[in-house]
Amino acid sequence: MKTRSSRPALVLAALVAAFPAGAYEVHDSHFHLTNYVQQGTDIRDFLEIMGDKVGRVALFGIPLQQAWSYENSGDFAPTYYLQTDAPLYYYSFTDAWIASAYLSLGKKDRARFDPMITGFNPADMYAVDHIRRVLQVFPGVFTGIGEFTIHKEFVSSKVAGDVASLTDPALDRIFAFAGEAGLIVLIHNDIDMPFAAEGASPVYLRQMKELLLRHPRTTVIWAHAGMGRVVHPVQSEAGAAPAERPRNQAGLVEKLLEDPALGHLYFDISWSEVAKYIVATPESLQRAAHVINRFPDRILFGTDEVAPADQATYLRVYEQYGPLWPLLTAEAREKVRKGNYERLFDAARKKVRAWEEANVSKVAR
Ligand SMILES: [Zn+2]
After folding, report:
1. How far apart are the CA of 318 and the centre of ligand 1, in A?
2. Are 92 and 120 a contacting pair, CB within 8 Å?
3. For FRET with 140, which of 2, 229, 285, 337 sits at 20 to 30 Å CA-CA?
């Protein structure tokens, strides 16, 4: 009789057995080395945690600092945005922190990381200059930008200063430059408001689509397929004419992927909150598997883990997806786990290096 506690071990054992020795099991397109107070895992310890399971990692910090306001929480030092009413503010030094962690490694270990620039305020028309400056100060390091956030439950309203929006020309400058330099864009943008009423069209869908259509040359990964802790998967009103509206989140994602004008759009399925929705029922699993098998080139696995202390914690989202992997075709399984990461990030590395070659003065190198 299979006991509850042995199941995850069995799932993992079956997965491990499926991979030839030396071949990594999965790449992680979404990983935070540091948390909301810029504390994190030493990159050498993290290499140990990756071990022989995780091959490559899109590596970044968190561009927002959670302020510790004594008036607000006294001696209690918050480390997460839900732990205090004190504001969040943009923290640009995170890019130097990530670059120096990466540069402290040898060539072989560096090859397993794709550092990403996050330390900019997407509501600032000068943000694009920060991105260019980071490439000039740290040539040879970064592959993309993000994860950065526009609309995010509990967070966006806590950020000090101007509110970020999908219609802000500051964001168009960022997307345009990313397209020019070849930087992959990893964006967090809730597709809807928290606790949205059933049947209502997701509030941010149209603006997000228009932003993507304005930047066809920019490779964009939409983190978490737009879902969140309380930004539930879109549910359409029972009885609504299917032709008009996708039946649910999976249908909505499918519709976006079908659109030939959105060939530059990808989704990551990172975060335990997202995995929670996908593996919730046999139906939700089937729906997700159907979309992934139809568009195997467009979905990337990611953990969205933040500064994990050990491998079990780091791989919990991968394990959470245990029931999904067998439902995918062999092609889709390989691409979601590794192939799409390698294709997109290798292409971006090449383009960004070429941009640096052409634009970063020899002096700076
Ligand atoms: Zn994230």
Report:
1. 15
2. yes
3. 337
pLDDT 10s digits, 247-279 = 588 999 999 999 999 999 999 999 999 999 999
- CA–CA separation, 65 vs 42, rounded Å? 19
pLDDT reported for residue 12: 47
Interval between CA 105 and ligand 1 midpoint (Å): 24
Residue 146, C-beta contacts closer than 8 angstroms, at least 6 positions apart: 60, 116, 117, 118, 184, 185, 186, 187, 188, 221, 223
Distance 36 CA to ligand 1 centre (A): 11
Distance (Å, whole) CA 211 – CA 232: 22
pLDDT at 31: 98
The SS3 of residue 319 is helix
Task: Answer yes or no: pTM beyond 0.90.
Answer: yes
Ligand 1 centroid to residue 304 C-alpha, Å: 5
Structure token digits, residue 169: 């020309």
Give residue 28 CA to ligand 1 midpoint distance, Å: 11
Flag residues of the chain having pLDDT under 70: 1-22, 236-247, 362-365
Q: How far is the CA of 1 from the centre of ligand 1 (A)?
A: 38
Which domains occur in the chain, in start order? 25-236+248-359 (3.20.20.140)
26 CA distance to ligand 1 middle (Å): 18
Q: Kindly report, residue by residue over 194-248, the tens digit of the pLDDT.
A: 888 877 789 999 999 999 999 999 999 999 999 999 888 877 555 555 454 555 8
Do 247 and 236 meet the contact criterion of CB atoms below 8 Å apart?
yes
CA 267 to centroid of ligand 1, rounded, Å: 13
Query: Counting beta carbons within 10 angstroms of the beta carbon of residue 136, is it exposed (0 to 12), middle (13 to 18) or buried (19 or more)?
Result: middle
The pLDDT value recorded for residue 8 is 52
CA distances from 247 to 18, 296, 332 (A): 35, 21, 23
Q: Near ion ligand 1, which residues have CB within 5 Å?
A: 147, 304
For residue 287, CA distances in Å to 214, 264, 335 come to: 30, 23, 18
